[in-house]
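User: I'm putting together notes for a lab meeting next week and I want to include a structural view of one of the chains we've been expressing. I don't have a solved structure, so I'd like a prediction I can at least talk through. The sequence is below, exactly as it appears in our construct file.
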Amino acid sequence: MSALRIEFHRDAPFLPELGLWLDSRDAKRGEERVFVSHAHADHLGRHREVILSEPTHLLMNVRVGGGRLAHVLDFRQPAPFEFKGRRFQITLLPAGHILGSAMALIECDGESLLYTGDFKLHGGLAAEKCETVEADCLIMETTFGRKQYRFPPVGETMEEIRKFCRRRLKKGETPALMAYSLGKSQELLLGLKDDGFQFVVHPSVNDMNEVYRECGVAFPRYALIRDRRIDGKVLICPPSAKLPVNVSSDDRLKKAVISGWAVDRGCQYRHKADAAFPLSDHSDFDELIEFVRRVNPKRIYTTHGFVSDFAWTLRDLGFNAQALSEPEQMTLELPGALNVEDEWVD
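Assistant: Thanks for the context. Below is the predicted structure for the 346-residue chain, given as structure tokens.
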């Protein structure tokens, strides 16, 4: 039986021979370990024992607290582990998604498996540059795994965001850039820092910025929304943030959604925003395919996003691919290590 046999339980891949979960959100309190690829909430749980990068460790402490056994690994440095007498090693590689985001290269008994977590092949300013390596098996996220999700060059999108901010400020309005507090907000601060803007940020953004600073990232000066007026400034806050009444009710506040989903025409209207810009911390459709070609795996399992669609695309390109996190209709079981023994997620 392969040491890298894969199961899928509820929300996460599991390697039972190694006692290793990959990005489980359900708290794991037993003898198994959990690899945590990055610190976004949908990849975190209150586990007993985790494997992760230093920035993810720091961010996780802020977001869910401490009190766990943490194996904090440097990028590119193989680390040995053992589970019930079986030895294996894990090497973390930068994923390019947010600060500290990591892919896990797992090697055992002459086989290799690369698990991506969320990744961005051609990364931005607020994350380590993504690095690829060849592997026998690949488990990859496919958030934007349909052909319509092709993003314009980042430089063009940032220029459109600059123009939006300048136009609104010139009219005496306040441009509000609605972006997640971890990852996208830092990308905006770094991308706009040389444009002469004054910034005001939501406290949740500042909490994440403090960890970035601890890791050596320098941001332009900004004020907190609770401390200062926002007139003449660019506001950066999460889409779901609760703003002070005087701010949220101000009709001079003009909102722009910052998201890869802005490729969809309805994104702006779903968020009741004045604009939407397709800036993402994920790979787009073309980058997903480029990534697969670089890894050159014998087997591919897709998870998160358009998993079935992208698995079909890969098979059309000649790859041995199957959706892991949802069932596929009218497909033959592929040879290899996959062994699904629990419920599928629809």
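A couple of points you could mention at the meeting. The CA atoms of residues 67 and 299 lie 37 Å apart. The helical segments are 54-64, 154-170, 184-191, 203-214, 245-248, 267-270, 285-295, 307-316.

User: Perfect, that's what I needed.
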